[in-house]
Amino acid sequence: MSLYDLAIVGAGPGGLHTAKWAAKKGLKVALIEKRKDISKMTRYCSEHIILDENYNGDTIIVEPGKPLNAKGWIDGDSVNTIRSSRWGWELTYKGALCPVRDKYYYSRNLKHHAHYAWPDHRPFAWKYDKAGLLQQILDEVLPLGVEYINETTCYQAIDSPDKVLLKCVKHGKRFAIEAKKLVTADGASAQVAQTLGMNEDRVYFASALTLAVYMSGVKDYSPEQWCGFWGLCYGSNFAPLLGTGPAGHFEWADLILIGHPKQMPWDLYEFFTKKSPVAYMFENAKIEQCHSCMTKAFSPMKKPYKGNVLAIGDAAAFVETQAQGALNCGFWAAEAVAKELEGKPGFEEYTEKWLKTFEFNDDGMMQVTSGYALIPYYTDEQVEYLFSLLDGVTMDGSWSQYQSPRMMWREIHRHDERIKKERPDIWEK
Question: Do residues 273 and 211 lie in contact, with contact meaning Cβ atoms separated by under 8 Å?
Answer without folding.
Answer: no
